[in-house]
Every structure is written in C-alpha cells, then in structure tokens.
Amino acid sequence: MKVEQIPKYQMSPSGVLIIDKPAGLTSHDVVNRVRRVLGTRAVGHVGTLDPMATGILPLVIGNLTRLAQFYTSAEKSYEGVIRFGFATDTYDREGKPTGLQQPVTFSLDTLREWAARFCGVIEQVPPPFSAKKVEGVPAYKLARKQKPFTLRRVQVEVREFEILDLEHERARFRARVGSGTYMRSVAHDLGQQAGCGAHLESLRRTTVGEFNLAQAHTLEEFEAAARCGRAREMCVPPRDILPALPFVTANEESLVRIRSGRSVNLAELSRAKQVKVFDGERELVAIATRVAGTLFHPKIVLAGGTPVRAAKSSKPEEGAKPHGRH
Fold first, then answer.
1. What gap in Å lies between CA 279 and CA 212, rounded to an integer?
2. Residues carrying CATH 2.30.130, the chain
C-alpha cells in the first residue's frame, strides 16, 4: 500500500500518538507507516505487539521519543481467546500444531481454578518464537532455522487473569500483567495444566500504562487527520502524559536554565521526586529530578526541536523490534 507523505509544513513536531494496531502488521510496520506520513524517522513505539494482535500501540514522536524509557515497566491489560485441544510451536494460532488434537472435557469452574494458579509473581519460559536473545541471537531466528536452544525461565507478574467464559474448546479471558509477561506463554502453560494443550487464538491490548483504547486512533484516521494538518490533534494532550508526575509551568528565566541542562529552584514542588516542566500549556520541556530541598535538575531536556541529554550537575545553581511477540 502506498502511503502519501504529508507536506512538511503540516507536520506535528512532537507528541504521543496512540494507534489501535490492526491485525497483520508488526509494530515496526506501524512505526514505518507513521514515519512516512510525517516525513521523519523520529518515531518509536512502546511495547511490541504480535502481528496477529490488535489494540493499543503508543508511539512517541519527535522530541518525545526519549519518554519511552518511562514506559519500559508499564503495566499492560489484554483481552483475548485461548483455544484448547492442541499446542503450536509459536504458542499462537499462526504456528504449526505440535501434536494431535485432544478432547476438551473440563468445566469452566475447573478452568478458573487452574487460571488462578497463574496469578501473582510466577516463573515463565518465553515462547521460542520471541525476541529473547540466546547468546546475542534473537530466539525467533534460531527457531526459524530449527536450531536447538534453551530459553531460561524469567520472573514475571500476572496481576489479574480471569476466564470470562468457556464455549467448547475456546475460552475468553481478561488479563492485567507486568512488563515482560508473554500472554502466549500463559496460554501454552495453561494448556499443559489442562493436559490437552492450548494456544493463543486472539489477543487485543486494551491498556499500556495510563493509555487506553478511548485515546486510540486507527492508522487511517491518523493519515486523514495529517492530510488536513491536524496530526497534532490526534496526539495525547501533553498534560495527560505521565500523570503520576506533578507538573509546573516554568517562567522564561527558568526555561532558559532548564533548556541548557542547568538546575532550577521549584519551590512549589518541594516534596516531589520528579516533575514535568512545561513551557505554556502544550510544550513539555523537561523531566526534572529533585536534587535537594526545592532544587531540581533536568533528567532529560526536550529543547530546540532535538532531544538533548541534560548536563551533569557538578555545582547546583538556583533559579526558578526485528519484531518480537507478546
């Protein structure tokens, strides 16, 4: 599909854009499509989604690409369908069956009892077709070449895993998990618990951190808005980003210091550990960390159209993926 590039004068310089990813595209496909529309390579994504999965894919654009570091451990929520009766080599419907189909004879109550065992901090083996590295090589590359390898168990957290209903061999579920949790592995392991095998048939991500589906736009909606010069309107309002952090609108003198990576005095936020610093209502200038008392030093500075690393504070001064699968 040919993607029309929007004239440069219409581009939105920076922002967080929430895309409702369709099935069939990798996360990187979505990033590339937005890059072509905006005519910039300064676009990244937060949290990979499998090609078959749909739902929330936050994109960070322009100066705000460096905010991705604040979402590496973000909680994620999903809904989807697990099909019982046989497992697959990818742990989802796109893989090859690893055995003959088995009968599904357990009840909904029994399945819910099994699912409850997966809640909490658990150990999980990532799927063989994943971006986890084995001696520096992504596991999926080794799996495609049918080379033998072993993935180590990792500790993950499943904060909620609810089986909503069971109809024949298919179970609908809702889950809320910590970073690094593979729902494909949860489905596969639940199938082993059931003794008949299982795989993930469908998956939709409904939240990433503070972002949810109500804020999401399809690629087509974004492209139509960009053609009309309204790309900025599709982005999350800057004040809504990282809502756990308090914010302050700095004066001109403070902004000059912050943009050059120097410390400033923010008396009204003396108890906060980190703060968002704004220039006016819409421009997020920096994330600042409290040094001592009311003195804050910028952790990252977003200035002059190019993200810059904040200077190290020697003497404080005062003054106001190849894609993986999940």
1. 26
2. 245-309
